[in-house]
Design goal:
Elements (H helix, E strand, L loop, with lengths): L1 E5 L4 H12 L3 E5 L8 H10 L4 E3 L6 H10 L4 E4 L6 H6 L1 H21 L4 E7 L23 H19 L4 E7 L1 E3 L18 H9 L6 E4 L11 E2 L1 E3 H17 L2 E7 L5 E2 H12 L5 E4 L14 H7 L7 H17 L1
Parallel strand pairs: 1-2, 1-4, 2-3, 4-5, 5-6, 6-11, 7-10, 8-13
Antiparallel strand pairs: 9-12
Helix pairs in contact: 1-2, 1-8, 3-5, 5-6, 7-11, 9-11
The structure holds uridine-5'-diphosphate-4-deoxy-4-fluoro-alpha-D-galactose (UFG).
Uridine-5'-diphosphate-4-deoxy-4-fluoro-alpha-D-galactose binds next to α7 and β8.
Amino acid sequence: MRILVTGGAGYIGSHTAVELIQAGYDVVIVDDLSNARREVIDRIQEITGTRPLFYQINCADKKALQAVFAGNRIDAVIHFAGFKAVGESVKKPLQYYRNNLDSTLTLLEVMEEYGCRKFIFSSSATVYGPENPHSYREEMPAIQSSSPYGWTKVMIERILTDYTTAHPDFCAVLLRYFNPIGAHESGLLGDDPNGIPNNLMPYIARVAARQLEKLTIFGGDYPTPDGTCQRDYLHVVDLAVGHLKALEYAMDHKGVEAVNLGTGNGVSVLELVQVFEKVNHIKLNYVIGPRRDGDLPAFWADATKAKALLGWEAKHSIEDMCESAWRFVLHSNVQ
Ligand code: UFG
C-alpha cells in the first residue's frame, strides 16, 4: 500500500514516515522544504534502510501534485504540510489562509481526480478554542480558535466534513494533536525549527545546549497547582503511531471522525523543566516572566475515543520525552 505524506520532511511527518516504512508501507513524501531540511530524507533512510520517494513541491502546485499521483498509485494521504506558528499567523494571516487552505483544497481536487478516498488530517487541540472546559472531548463544539493558524485547522476540518458528506465513499480522520515533544530514539530525527523556537521543548533544548541564554516561563500566576500553564505533552513517536492506527481505521471505514491524540494528563511548564533537568543531569537557566498573549491556563485530552476507535494510547513517559529531545540535540551537535 502506498501512502502520500505531505510535509513528510517536517517534525511529525518524518517520524510518521519512519513508522509507516517500518510497518511495511510504501511512502511517498512531498514537502516544499520551507520549514524542513532535505537531510531528513537521508535520516529516514538511515533509520529504516529504505529511502522514501521524495518530491520537493508545494501541495498548492496542482500540476506538480498531479504528476505525483500520475506516477504513483496513491492509496491514502496523510496531510501534514502547512504553516504552523501561532504567533506568526497573527502577523501574516493572509499567508496562513492562502497556504494552508490552498494546499488542502488542491490536494482534495487531485485526490478526487485520481480516485483516492482516504485522508488523515493533522489537526490540533486548538480547534476546541478558549470556551470549552477541559478535558476536551471530540463531541464538544470544535469551531473556535484564537489565531489564524488555529482557524485554518477549524476551516480544513469543516472542508473535510462537507466533502465527506458530498462523497459518502470518502473517509477523513481528523487527528487533534495535543502537545507533541521528544524525538526519535536514534537521535536522528527531532524538532528542529528554523530561528528562535516558539514552542517550549525546542526552546528548552537550546537553552540546555547554551545556544540560548535562558528560558522565560510565560506566567507564574495561573490558577494551576504551581502557577504555570498545564498542557498534555505526548511523545512524537506515540503520535506517529497514532497516524498508523488512523490509517488502518480509514482503510475499512467511510465518513469523518475527529480523534484526540493526547495522553489525558496535564503537566505544567515547571514540571517539564524539572523532569528535563533531572533525567538529563542539566541545570536549566530560567526565569518566570509575564504571561504570553493567547495562552490558556490548562488543557488536556480526553483520550478515550482514540483507544476505543483506533486502539491507540500513548505509551511513553514525560521522562522519555525529555531524554529523547536532549539526545537529538546532542546527536545534532556532533554531526
Ligand atoms: N512556554 C513558555 N516559554 C516558552 C515557550 C512556551 O513558558 O519559551 C509555555 C507556554 O506559555 C505554554 C507551554 O509552554 O504554557 C507550551 O507552549 P508551546 O508554545 O510549546 O505550545 P502551545 O500549547 O502554546 O501550542 C500548542 C501547539 C499549537 C496549537 C496550540 C493550541 O504548538 O500548534 O497548542 O493552543 F495551536
